[in-house]
Amino acid sequence: MFRKMRRAHQQMTDVQVEEILKNADYGTLSVIGDGGYPYCVPLNFVYYNGKIYFHCAKAGHKVDAIKENSKACFNIVSEQKVIEEKYTTYYKSVTAFGNARIVDNEKLKIEAVTALAKKYVSFGDEEIKKEIDAALKALCIIEFDIEHVTGKEYKPQK
After folding, report:
1. Is 141 exposed, middle or buried, given 0-12, 13-18 or 19+ CB atoms closer than 10 A?
2. Helix 125-135, helix 106-120: angle, nearest 10
3. What is the rounded distance in angstroms from the CA atom of residue 92 to the CA atom of residue 114?
4. CA distances from residue 12 to 62, 94, 149 in whole angstroms, order as listed
5. For residues 143 and 124, what is the distance between their CA atoms, to the nearest angstrom?
């Protein structure tokens, strides 16, 4: 069902892909939005237990789209450098295809948002827990279950 990468020599290893999933700051989630139009939105995320998690409000375009159709795509560009004299850009990117769903299980919701917080802030566990407890009722967590993922690196050939 998923296409093979056309330029297979640029395909990254599974280890390289997982490294980007663990360390990149943000990516863009694409869903099927209103009227069948694609809707994409940049998001902070965490790669946790083999899945990608996002946080958001309980209402909005993204949440409505996911409730209507769970199929989604998530893209990360982790490095990029424009090489003016060659009219090109060197980059590393990861694209994941899968299904997104709203997390209903409170234990998983807390685990995911805690992992997300630990990725982005240097506060201690107590401060993180306090913030999560205060925001939990208004918080929506989206779980992205990866069905297929590829990584691509474009750099000069030797």
Report:
1. buried
2. 130
3. 27
4. 29, 9, 10
5. 25
> Which residues, including other chains, have CB under 8 Å from residue 67's CB and lie 6 or more apart?
102
**CA 94 – CA 101 distance, rounded (Å):** 21
Specify the length of the chain in residues. Answer: 158
Distance CA 27, CA 30 (A): 10
Termini Cα distance of the chain: 33
3-state secondary structure of 101: strand
pLDDT of residue 23: 95
Burial class (CB in 10 A: 0-12, 13-18, 19+), 139: middle
Token pair, residue 114, equals 């805690």
Task: Say what the pLDDT of residue 156 is.
Answer: 66
Residue-wise over 13-31: b if at least 16 C-beta within 10 A, else e? eeeebbbbbeebeebebbb
**pLDDT tens, 24-70?**
999 999 999 999 999 999 999 999 999 999 999 999 999 999 999 99
Q: Which residues contact 37 (CB under 8 A, 6 or more apart)?
A: none
Element (H, E) at 93: strand 88-102
